[in-house]
Amino acid sequence: MQTKTLDNLQEWVDEIALLTKPDKIYWCNGSELESEHINNILIEKKVFTPLKKKPRSFWCTSDPSDVARVEDRTFICSKEESDAGPTNNWMDPDEMKSILEELFDGSMNGRTMYVIPFAMGVVGGRNSKYGVQISDSPYVVASMRIMTRMGEEALKEIRKTHEFVKALHSVGAPLLSGVEDVTWPCNPNKYIVQFPEDKEIWSFGSGYGGNALLGKKCYALRIASYLGWKEGFLAEHMLILKVTSPDKIINYIAAAFPSACGKTNLAMLDPALQGWKVETIGDDIAWLHFGDDGRLYASNPENGFFGVAPGTGWATNPNAMRTIELGNSIFTNVALTDDGDVWWEGMTEEIPTHLTSWKRQSWTSGSSELSSHPNSRFCTPASQCPTIAPEWENPDGVPISAIFFGGRRDSTLPLVFQARNWQHGVFLGATLSSETTAAATGEVGVVRRDPFAMLPFLGYHAGDYFKHWLSLASVTSENNLPKIFYVNWFRKDRNGKFLWPGFSENSRVLKWAIEQVRGETSSRESAIGLIPLPGAIDTENLNISPELMAEVLNVSKSEWENEIPLIHKWFEFIGDKMPLELWDELSFLEENIASM
Ligand code: SAT
Ligand code: MN
Fold first, then answer.
1. Mean of the pLDDT values across residues 524-540?
2. Of 191, 204, 371, 472, which is least packed with CB atoms within 10 Å of its CB?
3. How far is the CA of 377 from the centre of ligand 1 (A)?
4. Which residues pair with 286 in a beta bridge?
5. How would residue 521 be classed by pLDDT, with cut points 50, 70 and 90?
6. For residue 114, which of 148, 150, 149, 164 has the smallest C-alpha distance?
């Protein structure tokens, strides 16, 4: 645990400076002036190219080897291996610390060490938490300023409580005097390490995304999920949205999908349905706490969006486009247009004839190479989003009435179904599966179990995590808990064509789910849960036949017969800590499928 000496922060900063041996130490205050100064450093180093077409916005490209989260280099170093569980890499904390201390020894040589105080959640909020990232990357400083509430105000809170997560980051590329720097320093040897009991993060070798912006996955998910287990809250890989129906009733929905499966698009949904309104609270992470009324309240601990660029366009996510139009954004690994704007695959129907690709090479339309990396990102302030809900900074969060789980599956999982109850809902979360995406290094398109979309982000044993979810039903009444749904926008027909149009049409699924929440039920029991009755999903003005709707909602006996052994194997992999209640759910599913 954190030792509470009078200035534990200064002590830690001194200790790290002694280890990493930077040329200079700079404490970030989060001011406009400082931001300008950091951006100018990045421009001077040719890391940032200012965009002529967007105010205070920059184009940036990483080293081609440093483009995504490195799950195989990510560790949960709990004291006991059994607390990390089978889904995490683990090493003894002392052993890991000695490896890391050797790597960090002199790792900031020739560079400036930035001290970045930050808040996750609004500063001063009842459920907000604090951290200090030490980093040798000015790109990280600029990004943390967008993604977190960074600077003076956060530091004041830390000085009051002396409570903060220590988040140490180095790109692992000491700069020898007289040697010219590269634009994207990094190290082929990468370690992304969480020490949950000590509330510490040590990240080495990468400068990109979740590997380097430590407030995000490392803190707000891995460390916070562990804290949630101990303190009785949840830290989840979920977007949060506000839906207002034509009769002006508001529902808040949280949805967990794996990385690069459309969370940002759903969070900023432009509904196809007349009279419905969707507003954004968060696009990636939700912390859920019980309110005094026994309901679960969600808040977004982040301050910005770090969204996948390719596929984001005026047709698919106009609100994301409007957000970035306002500027103040960093674009990494997308293409640069000849007139000083950014472009990526899927942004516009018309493809520019000439670009500079993310590899900084001349690119012409028709090229066999993509102009932008599939995991290229925009980093932009949430406050600029035209659909941001006024209550997005409500320190107590918003009461959640429905939770969606989902992934990318080309078969088996229907467009939408509802869990019979909380326990069944936890089963749906625990068995969530999805095809892998470019958000992490490794093969793309392989189906894997990704429980609650948290596989890469769990800070403790998956079995204990499932128990924690189940235990919420004993804290409050089932009635108070959100209703749970499973969605799959990605089901395909025999020819590999998507069955459901997705994007703004997903509002039709939101409408059905909200009707279910309101008890205006229009569903039937199926082998896997509650399925919409024919005609229950509003398809007005959508060119989709009843036969096609039946296909996208179909529960196929043979497909589920193939699925069940995979769930069996998954539960066995979790081992002794797999809750019996979920084994019971699996047996029940098996019986239901057998008797179809
Ligand atoms: O690079 S990040 O981890 O922040 C993005 C993601 O995988 O969701
Ligand atoms: Mn994410």
1. 97
2. 472
3. 9
4. 236
5. confident
6. 150
Cα of first residue to Cα of last residue in the chain, in angstroms, is 53
Closest atom of ligand 1 relative to the 208 alpha carbon: 1
**Are 146 and 380 contacting, i.e. CB atoms less than 8 angstroms apart?**
yes
Beta bridge partner(s), residue 290: 296
Q: Which residues contact 314 (CB under 8 A, 6 or more apart)?
A: 321, 347, 348
pLDDT in tens, 388-420: 999 999 999 999 999 999 999 999 999 999 999
Sheet holding 49-50, edge to edge: 49-50, 58-60, 330-332, 377-381, 304-308
pLDDT in tens, 425-435: 999 999 999 99
Q: Give me the catalytic one of 28, 60, 218, 261.
A: 261
Query: What pLDDT, in 10s, does the model give residues 206-257?
Result: 999 999 999 999 999 999 999 999 999 999 999 999 999 999 999 999 999 9
Rounding to the nearest 10 degrees, give the CA dihedral for residues 182, 183, 188, 189.
90
**Model confidence pLDDT, tens digit, residues 363-395:** 999 999 999 999 999 999 999 999 999 999 999
List CB contacts of 381: < 8 A, sequence separation 6 or more. 146, 303, 304, 323, 328, 329
Residue 480 sits at the vertex; the CA angle it makes with 476 and 481, to the nearest 5 degrees, is 85
Structural domains in the chain, sorted by start: 9-48+65-230 (3.40.449.10), 235-304+389-594 (3.90.228.20)
Q: In what order do the strands lie in the sheet with 354-356?
A: 342-343, 335-337, 354-356, 362-364
User: Two tokens at 213?
Assistant: 């912006």
261 counts as catalytic: yes
In this prediction, residue 2 has a pLDDT band, given cuts at 50, 70 and 90, of very low
- Confirm if 204 and 187 have CB atoms less than 8 A apart: yes
Q: Which of 62, 139, 217 to mutate to test the pocket of ligand 1 (most atoms within 8 A of CB)?
A: 217
278 lines ligand 1 (CB under 6 A): no
